[in-house]
Amino acid sequence: MSRIFIAICISLVSLGAHAGTVLIEDVRIFNGVDEKLMSGNILVVDDLIAEVSSDPIAAPEGATVIDGKNRILTPGFIDLHVHLNLQMPAQLMREHGTAAGARSVEMAKFYLDNGFTTIRDAGGTHPDLARAFNSGDLYGPRVFPSGATVSQTAGHGDFRMPHEANPLHAHTSPLLAGDFSILADGVDAHLIAVRENLKNGATQIKIMGGGGVMSDYDPIHSLQPSPAEIRAAVQAASDWGTYVLAHAYTAEAITRLVENGVKSIEHGLLIDDDAARLVKEKGAVISTQLYIFRQLLGGEYMTDFQKEKAAQVQAGQENLIDLIKKYDITTGFSTDFIFGEYAALPLEFTERAIFWSNAEVLNQATAQGGEIIRMAGKLNRHGRFGEVREGWVADLLIHESEILEDLSGLGDPEANLALIMKAGEIIKVKL
Ligand SMILES: [Zn+2]
Questions:
Q1: What is the CA(122)–ligand 1 centre distance, in A?
Q2: pTM surpassing 0.85?
């Protein structure tokens, strides 16, 4: 299919009639996987990479030619754990989704300006907002929405005030109904919650699979939900050809989730050796975040209970990283910023560089992220991205700084990013 498409594109190029043709010359290419850079040239036709070559490529008539000046080119970045709709100040967490949506526009702009061409929303954002970004009506990365998180009563998605009744029995709080979570107890309720999200346009499903830091009622050790409920969510998702990602910290929670079909563990900090081996055996992944947990410890908005829980999970971070390395578990790159604190986004790169080589961190933020996003199967309507390969989507960045030697250059995207291209469209060029 893609080969046919490339053939069509190339024949259009030879006619010299293609408006969306860009030739990028003289770049050192990090393809998303190989540490060794390839000096070469890239031809982009419409939204796809049509040719990658170390030999010169003749500029098709009418093509835009960009001289890369021997700078480093990488795929666009991918963040696997974003909450577009949770960027209000902490004290306004229960504001209406309309206001939260407006704030998300700022966040999305920041992300694309930092070279992030794709994000996976890990719950709480209505898929309609993703459509507005994906259609180009709003400026930002492409968005893979999970819809509302699915949480049991008292689980990590239960953000009711203490006096609020369960919405299944009484009134419905806006945070639960339209935005962050759907409370679901029982197999049938899980089937309904997942199918509602799929109906709205979710590309994957997020469940709350164990105790969380920012929620008020659930200790970290709590197991959420029951195996039968997890299997129901996984069944409803896999019937649509997609997968379930689950919030979880402890080895017990991770084991239960993965044994019952969950494919992407979010956070995972209190994992142990057996659970890590099981994750690998089951072909699941662990999408974890480094920077946010240190930041949470200092969060002024945290209650004592929340701070205690943050300290508890943070203690497991180095062990988790050791196990990810030991079992070669795919992890991608993700951040989980909430309450508008995403300006720290570049610090996730440098934080990771303490534990992995710069090339490995870039691999996480590109090829590994793409691999995880593609678990959405046929619900991914955006093709293959995350690597510089012929036939893949042309999400490309050119960097002024030598990022394979020092990732801190990413902290100043205004100076560092000489080119941002998303699906063949030039978002920014400064060469
Ligand atoms: Zn999250």
A1: 6
A2: yes
